[in-house]
Amino acid sequence: MKIKTLQIMLLIAAVLCAVGIFAGLGGGSRIDGHNFSPPAWLKGLGGFAGGPRLSARDLTANGVSLQEPLVLPSGRTRQFNVASADGKVRRVAFLVTGSSHGTLNIRYKPNSGQRLNGKRVDPQSWPNEEKGDPSFVVYNGGGKFVFTNAGPSSLKIRLED
Predict the structure, then answer these.
(1) Which residues contact 78 (CB under 8 A, 6 or more apart)?
(2) What confidence tier does 32 reach under pLDDT thresholds 50, 70, 90?
(3) Is CB count within 10 Å lower at the N or C end of the chain?
């Protein structure tokens, strides 16, 4: 293949890539600085950079792993222990369905004495200042998740894929 032909093919490929990226981002017209929801392909890339995910078998209540979906009736609280991991900070995101989605409270309490980069780790809760489905950083020493449904109807909670 001649060098000139190769150069033209590379130029066409670069232009197509630029057009594809621009089209994928939507030109900015649907981006809201307060409610940005990245496209599915971008969320998928988070799995590569975000570290390992917490699995259902890492959440236990009375020695039994979380059965998905977790059905949480109105006015009920469920607590799950989080298994420790060898030096790994994990992440977890939950998907919540039900008519009283806004009445769910989730709290992650790391076991006492845990430190990350020399600093004490703090409990996390949802809802918080972030928009979207609940997500947490789970520290290597484990802890507890407490789910409380303060709404009038049942909720279903499962781990995000």
Answers:
(1) 61, 70, 72, 146, 147
(2) very low
(3) N
Are 61 and 117 within 8 A, CB to CB?
A: no
CA dihedral over 107, 112, 114, 120, signed as positive or negative: positive
Token pair listed for 89: 């900070």
The two three-digit tokens of residue 132, written as one number = 């979207």
Count the helix, strand and coil residues of the chain and give each as a percent rounded to the nearest 5: 25, 35, 40
For 89-136, what is each residue's pLDDT tens digit? 889 999 988 866 668 999 999 998 888 888 888 999 998 777 778 999
Cα gap 14→122, rounded to integer Å = 46
> What Å distances lie between residue 126 and 12, 35, 109, 139, CA to CA?
47, 17, 12, 17
Strand-pair partners of 115: 120
| Residue 74 CB contacts under 8 Å (≥ 6 apart), including other chains | 100, 149, 151, 152, 153, 154
